[in-house]
Design brief:
Keywords: DNA recombination, DNA-binding. Residues 201-324 form the Recombinase domain. It comes from Streptomyces cellostaticus. Pfam families: Resolvase (PF00239), Zn_ribbon_recom (PF13408). GO terms for molecular function: DNA binding; DNA strand exchange activity. By secondary structure, this protein is an alpha/beta fold. It has 4 domains: 12-178, 3-Layer(aba) Sandwich (Rossmann fold), CATH 3.40.50.1390; 204-322, Hect, E3 ligase catalytic domain fold (Alpha-Beta Complex), CATH 3.90.1750.20; 340-396 and 469-531, no CATH class; 408-462. The chain is built from 15 helices and 18 strands. It is flat, with a radius of gyration of 32 Å.
């Protein structure tokens, strides 16, 4: 009797969505907390709430519950909530706080906007002791505090700093134990013919048989795409991978985002013979290799999309087509990638190498124009003209770096001066302590004038936590002379500078005329400011 199978649908794999979890009671409590927050004084501490969840289960605390608990904690502390950094479906073991989409944006760019970070429990915040140490150093540098609802953590005390280190060590041990269990599961999975965990290779999908076991079955659409690609590659005049992708996308057999390199990697995957495989990286090249049992034989997990003869004959053809391809530059063939764009189709200009009669040629071509448009020969000449134009416009701009300035000390000084001014003004009122003799009144008036001048000299901006731009003594011309084209390309890409390449055919001349137009954002000076990466060493 044939086994019945059921393909798992998208609903079985849906990730948790926080928007659907707010109940009427939750929303009512949220409004109540916001009303209480509106009554806080202007100088109340500003709290950023950090909410994180990797997988929602019955045992985990939902993001809604985390946020409400943290808002109640902020109310108890007299803090105003200025934002919620909600990072869902994010592993604290794999992704440190500064690399998370929401929290990372606050830490790297919005530090002046908050005074403390509130989180539900330390393992909701970090799972590695090294990550915790990095965040603590950052908090001490920027004058921020870490507060946990369910752990005794407070960076304003020595005991709190010790406690956060201890609890962080326990969280790392728990994460290591979890990692060991997961690694053990993967190693066990490699030896089994049943599909236990993981994403199937292209060409297959998971299904459930009549016994309730998860198995792999062939995806019919992928089967058609793979077999058509093999026939196209085995022709007397084989189709290129790019041509294959174009046809498959047009026939709706593959997704529109498919690239030639991804398609070739799919065709080279030995999993298409129905064997279990694992990824192997060799010099940056990703390939899959067959996993062998203890007796040296491969582990079959599904019916093969290709037979062994079909698969290996395809590999011979693909190897033959790739033998004479020019060697790739590890750093990329195109300089100023993302800066040079086509005037007609507004896509990136890239260097394409061709070989004819033993000679190698390089052309700058675009992505959407037919055939890459009129190829622009001599890319180095284009680079040289771009460098000259950029130096003329931006070379003399000073290199400014972003520095963080805290306003706490200035605020204390302002408060001291205000209290002193109030003290002397009260004493100079009729019947006050400084009006009893002419000498004390004159001295008090002189002191009051000095205090008022000091108070007036304080810049209101200096009382705030803020970023300031400081000149480091160099111009961008000097910076780029030291770092070369690579440094200039990185800065132009970061700032958003573009250069349009317009190619015009010239009668009787094979090479087109190249016209270059440099496009610089209006706020280029603000964008040129260098921002120190506080977490660069942590990567």
């Amino acid at each position: 009797m044939a086994k019945r199978t059921r393909t798992r649908g998208a609903t079985d794999r849906t990730q948790y969505a926080v928007d659907t979890e707010w109940t009427k009671a939750d929303l009512a409590l949220l409004e109540e907390l916001k009303r209480a927050e509106a009554l806080l004084p202007d100088d109340a501490p500003r709290a950023l709430l950090s909410v994180r969840l990797s997988v929602l289960t019955d045992e985990t605390t939902s993001p809604v519950r985390q946020e409400l608990d943290l808002r109640m904690l902020a109310r108890e502390r007299g803090s105003r909530v200025v934002g919620v950094a909600s990072d869902l479906n994010v592993s604290a073991t794999k992704v440190p706080p500064w690399r998370r989409k929401e929290l990372g944006s606050w830490l790297n760019n919005r530090a002046p906007e908050f005074d403390e970070i509130l989180f539900w429990k330390l393992d909701r915040f970090v799972r590695r002791l090294s990550d915790l140490s990095t965040v603590i150093d950052w908090c001490l540098k920027y004058g921020k505090n870490l507060v946990s609802k369910n752990d005794s953590i407070d960076l304003t005390t020595t005991a709190g700093k010790i406690m956060v280190t201890i609890v962080g060590g326990i969280a790392e041990i728990e994460a290591a134990n979890t990692s060991t269990r997961v690694a053990s599961l993967w190693e066990y999975t490699k030896t089994q013919s049943e599909w236990l965990v993981g994403k199937p290779a292209y060409g297959y999908e998971t299904a459930v048989d009549g016994d309730g076991k998860t198995i792999l079955v062939i995806n019919e659409t992928a089967y058609r795409a793979l077999h058509w690609s093999r026939k196209a590659a085995m022709r007397e005049r084989p189709a290129s991978a790019r041509r294959m992708v174009k046809v498959l996308v047009r026939a709706s057999l593959c997704e529109s985002s498919l690239t030639a390199s991804t398609h070739l990697r799919r065709l080279r995957n030995p999993a298409l013979m129905g064997y279990r495989v694992e990824e192997e990286k060799n010099g940056g090249v990703r390939r899959s290799k067959i996993v062998l049992r203890s007796d040296g034989k491969p582990i079959r997990v599904a019916e093969g999309v290709f037979t062994e003869d079909e698969f290996y004959s395809l590999q011979e053809v693909l190897d033959g087509n790739g033998k004479n391809q020019p060697t790739r530059n590890p750093e990329g063939a195109t300089r100023f990638l993302g800066v040079l764009i086509c005037h007609d189709c507004v896509t990136n200009m890239t260097v394409q190498k061709t070989r004819s009669k033993g000679r190698s040629y390089e052309y700058l071509r675009c992505g959407k124009c037919k055939g890459g448009g009129q190829g622009a020969p001599n890319p180095e000449g284009v680079y040289g003209r771009l460098v000259d134009d950029v130096l003329k416009v931006l070379g003399d701009e000073p290199v400014m770096t972003r520095e963080y300035r805290q306003g706490a000390e200035t605020r204390k000084e302002q408060q001291r001066l205000e209290q002193s001014v109030s003290y002397y003004m009260t004493g100079l009122e009729p019947g006050g302590r400084f009006t009893k003799t002419q000498f004390t009144q004159e001295q008090a008036e002189k002191t009051l004038d000095d205090l008022i001048k000091q108070l007036q000299a304080i810049d209101p901006e200096s009382t705030k936590d803020r970023w300031v731009a400081v000149h480091n003594g160099k111009t961008f011309r000097e910076r780029w002379e030291e770092g070369g084209m690579e440094a200039m390309a990185a800065d132009l890409l970061r700032v958003g500078v573009k250069c349009e390449i317009k190619r015009t055919r010239v009668k009787g001349v094979r090479a087109p005329h190249i016209h270059m137009k440099l496009m610089i954002p209006k706020n280029v000076r603000d964008r040129l400011i260098l921002k120190e990466d506080d977490f660069a060493q942590a990567f």
